[in-house]
Amino acid sequence: MDNATEHTTHFGFKQVDKGQKASLVANVFDSVAAKYDVMNDLMSMGVHRLWKRFTIDCSGVRAGNKVLDIAGGTGDLTAKFSRLVGPTGRVTLADINLSMLKVGRDKLRDRGLVSNIDYVQADAEALPFPDNHFDVVTMAFGLRNVTEKQNALNSIYRVLKPGGRLLVLEFSKPTSEQLSKLYDMYSFHILPKMGQLVANDAESYQYLAESIRMHPDQETLKGMFEQAGFEQCDYQNLTGGIVALHRGYKF
After folding, report:
1. Number of Cβ atoms within 10 Å of the Cβ of 93
2. Which InterPro entries does this one have (predicted)?
3. Which domain does 110 fall in, by range?
4. Which residues contact 149 (CB under 8 A, 6 or more apart)?
């Protein structure tokens, strides 16, 4: 690896200095925060709700658990986990982006979910929590925006209790060539136009489409889980591999 490559990373299809990526991603999410829920429904035709429900069903979260929802955004997973852990449990919604965190907090408070939820602005690569603290950690559609993904997985491993588990729901690689071509056409031709019409922001949605293509494929991400120390790692393709749910355990 040459010296230049060591200090750069991808921001969508562009190469940028590693120190710049976090602020560039922050600008994207500052821009999309207000329309995030509406755009998610439009972009996925509502299917993102089924992907998230499947993640919750696979999480094994139960009463009394401590759950960390990283890149929790507007709080879809946190809302459900709050009910599952009950008054004896605790859910922490963490997001590096303050705009997203505020949208999530306001949304959940408007729904009366206040008693067992904490909100923390946090970088997934350096989580500000004690060792061996959480029973379950989830990350839905956030890992691809992290600069050093392996650092994030290492940090998550540290804060999980022995016996705890990580679930990462993320866009992945379609399993068929035909689906991949259709998905590319949708992502690069329709999605930015939709972003322009609904959120007046084609550029952010162009980045989001590009970031999906730059994310590690299913087997590569599984290997990164294992490198962080997770065991019994597996993944399940959803919607033909457009999305995959990865799971790993800390023993």
Report:
1. 28
2. SAM-dependent_MTases_sf, UbiE/COQ5_MeTrFase, UbiE/COQ5_MeTrFase_CS
3. 16-173+217-250
4. 143, 216, 224
**How do residues 102-157 score in pLDDT, each as one tens digit?**
999 999 999 999 999 999 999 999 999 999 999 999 999 999 999 999 999 999 99
- Number of structural domains in the chain: 1
Whether 68 is in a domain gets the answer yes
Structure tokens at 148: 């050093």
User: What six digits make up the tokens of 205?
Assistant: 């949605």
In this prediction the pTM is: 0.89
CATH number of 67's domain = 3.40.50.150
The binding site comprises 74, 95, 123-124
Is residue 230 situated within a structural domain?
Answer: yes
Give CA–CA dist 193/31, Å, rounded.
16
pLDDT band of 1, cuts 50, 70, 90: very low
How far, in Å, CA of 77 to CA of 49, rounded? 10
Q: Could you tell me which residues are annotated as the binding site for S-adenosyl-L-methionine? A: 74, 95, 123-124
One-letter amino acid of 13:
F
The secondary structure of residue 4, as a DSSP letter, is H
Would 155 be classed as within a structural domain? yes
